[in-house]
DNA sequence: GGCCGTAGTGGGCGCGCTCCCAAATCGCTC
DNA sequence: GAGCGATTTGGGAGCGCGCCCACTACGGCC
C-alpha cells in the first residue's frame, strides 16, 4: 500500500520527503538546509514549514559520504598511568574544547590511548579519516601517538609542544615565565637555597620550567647547583621521593619549586616527615594551580595555567586549520599567573 | 587517462579497488572485511593481501548509511556548575567507559550539556540517530535531558537513578549501605551527636544517603533529629555553609557525615574556623573517596564508590541493550566501601 | 549419466545526501 | 515586444558500502 516517499527504512523523513511536502525539488531543500544562497523567500518558507512538520533531521552519514568530511574532531589523551583521573587539568581542557565547539556542527570524540593495541586502532581510525582534525594533550618528546598523527597529515593541534621546533600547531602556556615568576617569588621571600623538582625529562614543559628556575636564580645572583635539582615525573609519589633526595643532598634547602602541584603535594609530605615547617623552614610552590592546591595544609602557592582557555584556543586553532588547510604553522602561548597562598 | 578504479575522490582505496586487485567481486571483499562466513581460503587470502597492499580502510559513513547504525555512543554530562572540573568522579567514569569500549568498533562521543541551546542541539542530535545509545551521569530528578533521552527511545543507561522506580536502565553504587557504614563507623567511635550534610534534594542519591544515616542512627538507638541534618548541593562552599549552620544549631555536634567529599572539605574548613579539632572534637566522613580526600588535613575517611567500575558496567549494559533491544529493564548496584583515614 | 544439493561468488540495487548542470523563470533594457 | 543576463529550480549522477539474489562449480547420490 502507498508507502509514502522516503518512508522506507528507519521511518525517518528524508530530504525527498520534505521536498515532496513542500512541493519543491530536492536541490532546493538541500539549499535551505545548508543555508545556501539562491532560494526564493517563497520556496524557503515552504521548505522550512515542511521541515518543521516532518521533524526532518539530515542524515549525517549520507552527507558525510558525499562531502567526505567526518564532522567530528578527536581529542586524544595518551593515558599513561592514571593521570586522567587525578589531573583536573584534562577535565578543564575538555571543557574548553567542548565550549568552543558548541556552536559548530562538529562532534567531539574522546579517545584515550594507553595500550599498544589502542594505538593501532587509533592509526586505522585516523587513516580512515573518521575525523576532520585532531587535538592532543600531554605529549612526550618521542610520543608515538604524536608521530602517528603527524604522519596522517590531518589538521592537528597540540596542547603543549614536544620541542622548541614543534612542527605541529600548538597551544602552550608560558612555562618559562611561570616558573621564573615562581622562583623569583621565592627569592623575593629571602630564600637562599632554592631547590626544584622537575617533570619528566622527555617533556618539553619540564625543561622549560627548569630553565625558568635557572634564570630566576641567575638574575638573583644565586648559583644554580646540581644538588638542588631533583627529577620527578609529575606524580605525587615522585615528588615525595625527589624531596627526600633533596633534603638528603642539601639539608639547608629553604624553598622548593615543583613543576606540578601533585609533586608539590608529595614534597610537602616528605617535608612534614622530615619535620620541616611549611613555609617557615621550607617554602613550597607548585605548578598548575589544580584544585588540590587549595586543600593542602597549608594551602599551596602555585602557578596557574589557564587550562580551560587552552582547550578553547586549541579548538579555535584547529577549526581554522580545518577551514583553511593551507594555513601556515601557528602557535599560541598563554600566559600564566602566580597564585600566592600560604605555602610560600 | 586511466584513472584507476576507486581513485576518484579522496584517493583512498575503496572496496571496489580491493576487489579489482584481488581479482574477486565486491561481495567477496565485503565478506572478508566483515568476517562473514562462506569465503574460500583462496579468495580470503587474496583479498587480505590486496587490503594490506592498498592499505584499505572501510569508509564508515558509507557503511553507516546502509546499515543505519552510527557506530558510536554518547556520554552525556549535564554540566551544571563547574562540576566536571572538580569532580574526578566523572573522569573515572569516562575511563571506565572508554576501557570497556576499547575492543569494540564503537566511538565514544562526549557531550557536555549546560545551556538550553545545547540541550536543543542534543535533541536534534539524538533525533538524528547519530548515536546508537546514550550514557548519562549525574541525573537530577526532573532532569530535562534525561527526559529527552527517554523520549527518543534510544538505548540508554544512567549512572545513578532518578528515583527508586527509575524506568531507564541504570548503574548505581550502594548509597544506602555506604552511608549506613559511614555513620555506623562514627557511632562505633562513640560519637553521640552525629550530624549529616546532605546532597541536593532533587537527586536520588542524596535521599538514599540520608536514609542510610537514619537507619544507622536508629540501629544504634540514637534519635534522628532535624537540627542535626543540614542540606548542601555537593559543592565545597555548600558544605562549609552547612557545617556552620550545624554548629550554630547544635554546638555539641561531635561527628558529621557528608554526602560528598567536596562538602566534607568545606565542612572541615568551617570546623577549623570554629576551632574544633578533627577528629578529636568532631569526626568527619565524606563520600566518593575522591583524590582530594587523601590530601586534606587530616586525611579524610570516606566512602569509596567504584566509579571506574561504574563506567565499565554502564558501557557493558548499554552494549547489551544495543545488541538485544527488546531486553528487559536492568539495573546494577555496585557496592561501596568505607576507607578509614584520620578524620574519623 | 542425469539430478539435486551446497559452498562460493559476482554484481545490481539502494541507503540519503550534495554537486552540478541544464532548464525555467524573472526582470530589464533598447 | 523581442532579447539577454541574472536568478531560481529540478533532478540526474554518484559518494562507498551492505544486502540479497541469481548464478557457477563441485560433489555425491540414485
TrEMBL record, chains A, B:
Position of the signal peptide: none
SMART domains assigned to the protein according to its UniProt record, in alphabetical order: HTH_LACI
Record key words, sorted: DNA-binding, Transcription, Transcription regulation
KW Transcription regulation (keyword) present: yes
Domain HTH lacI-type per the UniProt entry, residue ranges: 13-67
UniProt xrefs under InterPro entries: HTH_LacI, LacI/GalR-like_sensor, Lambda_DNA-bd_dom_sf, Peripla_BP_I
Membrane-spanning ranges: none
The keyword Transcription regulation appears for this protein: yes
Superkingdom field: Bacteria
GO MF terms, alphabetically ordered: DNA-binding transcription factor activity; transcription cis-regulatory region binding
Record protein name field: DNA-binding transcriptional regulator, LacI/PurR family
Species this chain originates from: Streptacidiphilus jiangxiensis
Amino acid at each position: 500500500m502507498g508507502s509514502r516517499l522516503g518512508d522506507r527504512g528507519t521511518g525517518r523523513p528524508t530530504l525527498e520527503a520534505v521536498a515532496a511536502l513542500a512541493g519543491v525539488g530536492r536541490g532546493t531543500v538541500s539549499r535551505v538546509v545548508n543555508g545556501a544562497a539562491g532560494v526564493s523567500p517563497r520556496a524557503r518558507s515552504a521548505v522550512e514549514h515542511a521541515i518543521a512538520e516532518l521533524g526532518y533531521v539530515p542524515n549525517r552519514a549520507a552527507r558525510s559520504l558525499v562531502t567526505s568530511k567526518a564532522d567530528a574532531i578527536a581529542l586524544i589523551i595518551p593515558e599513561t598511568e592514571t593521570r586522567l583521573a587525578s589531573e583536573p587539568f584534562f577535565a578543564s581542557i575538555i571543557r574548553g574544547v567542548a565550549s568552543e565547539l558548541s556552536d559548530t556542527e562538529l562532534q567531539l570524540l574522546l579517545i584515550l590511548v594507553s595500550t599498544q593495541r589502542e594505538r593501532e586502532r587509533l592509526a586505522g581510525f585516523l587513516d580512515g579519516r573518521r575525523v576532520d582534525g585532531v587535538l592532543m594533550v600531554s605529549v612526550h618528546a618521542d610520543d608515538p601517538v604524536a608521530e602517528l598523527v603527524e604522519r596522517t597529515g590531518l589538521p592537528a593541534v597540540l596542547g603543549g609542544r614536544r620541542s622548541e621546533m614543534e612542527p605541529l600547531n600548538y597551544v602552550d602556556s608560558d612555562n618559562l615565565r611561570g616558573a621564573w615568576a615562581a622562583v623569583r617569588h621565592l627569592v623575593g621571600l629571602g630564600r637562599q637555597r632554592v631547590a626544584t623538582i622537575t617533570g619528566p625529562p622527555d617533556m618539553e614543559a619540564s625543561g622549560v620550567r627548569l630553565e625558568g628556575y635557572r634564570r630566576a636564580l641567575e638574575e638573583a645572583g644565586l648559583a644554580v647547583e646540581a644538588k638542588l635539582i631533583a627529577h620527578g615525573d609529575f606524580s605525587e609519589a615522585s615528588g615525595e621521593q625527589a624531596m627526600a633526595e633533596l633534603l638528603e643532598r642539601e639539608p639547608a634547602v629553604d624553598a622548593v619549586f615543583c613543576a606540578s602541584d601533585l609533586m608539590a603535594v608529595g614534597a610537602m609530605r616528605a617535608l612534614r616527615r622530615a619535620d620541616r615547617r611549611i613555609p617557615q623552614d621550607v617554602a613550597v610552590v607548585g605548578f598548575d594551580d589544580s584544585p588540590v592546591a587549595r586543600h593542602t595544609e597549608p594551602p599551596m602557592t602555585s602557578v596557574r595555567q589557564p587550562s580551560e582557555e587552552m582547550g578553547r584556543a586549541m579548538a579555535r586553532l584547529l577549526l581554522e586549520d580545518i577551514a583553511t588547510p593551507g594555513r601556515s604553522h601557528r602557535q599560541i602561548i598563554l600566559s600564566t599567573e602566580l597564585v600566592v597562598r600560604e605555602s610560600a
